[in-house]
Amino acid sequence: VVVCLIAVLALVWTMPDIPKTVKTGEICLPSEIGPLKCGSTADLLHGYLEREIATKYDEIKRQDQKKQENHLKKVSARLMNIYDKSFWEMKPAAKLPGKEQTDLRKNDITADMVPIKKWCNGRKLYDTKGFFKYGIKYRNGPLIVPVKGTYFIYSNLDFFQSCHPSSGLPDVKNINKPIKHGIFKFNILEGEEEELVSNVQPHTISTNRYYNSYNSYVSSLAELKAGDELSVKVSNISY
Hints:
Blueprint: H1 2-14, E1 26-29, E2 37-40, H2 41-83, H3 86-89, E3 93-95, H4 106-109, E4 114-115, E5 131-133, E6 137-138, E7 143-144, E8 149-162, E9 179-186, E10 193-201, E11 211-224, E12 229-234
Antiparallel strand pairs: 1-2, 3-5, 4-12, 6-7, 7-12, 8-11, 9-10, 9-12
InterPro entries: TNF_dom (IPR006052), Tumour_necrosis_fac-like_dom (IPR008983)
Family: Belongs to the tumor necrosis factor family.
Main location: membrane
C-alpha cells in the first residue's frame, strides 16, 4: 500500500499538463509507447501502477539476491577457516582400475553390449591409485550413488584385438559391427537402464597383421539420484 501511495503522489507531481479534452471518468498517464495516454481512470491507473510496482519489485529482488550472495561468501569463508577446507571437499567419489574379466554368460553372448563386472576393490584397491570416498558403494561391477547431485563420470579403456596374419583383418564374425564403449545407469525404482555417454569405433586393418589396439575415453556430467547404479559396458569383453 505504501508503495502504491508513493507512486500516486510521484505521478501527481511529475505529470505533464492534462489535455483539456479529457472527459469525466478519464485520466491521462504516461504510457509505454508515448508521453501520455488518456482513457478510463481505473484501467490506466491499474496498468501504470502495475508497471511501476513491477520495476520496484525487480529492484528489491536484485538487492536481496546481492545480500544473499554476500552473506554466503562470509559464511563460506568462516566455514573454510573452521574446517580447513575439508567441509567443501566431502563429495562422493570413486576411481576403480579394471582387472581380468570372467567368461561371458549365456545371456550375454548375443547382447549388443555387456557390462564389465570385475574391478579392483577391497584390499586389492590399496595397491592401485583407486579409491572410494564419502558413500560411494561397489556392487559386483556397478558403482552405487549415495546422494542426488551433478556428477562427473568417465571411463578409459584400451582394447586389443587379434587379426588374421595373412591379411591383417580383424578376427571377428562381423567386421561391420563396430566397437562400442559406454557408461550406463540403472535405478531399481525406475526399472529401466539409460545410456549416459558412449563411444563407437569401426574395426581397422592391423598394420602389424597380428593385432589391433584401440583406446576409448568417454566422459560427461550427469544428473544422478541416490541409488543410481553406474556400469561400464563394451561390445566385446574378449577385447
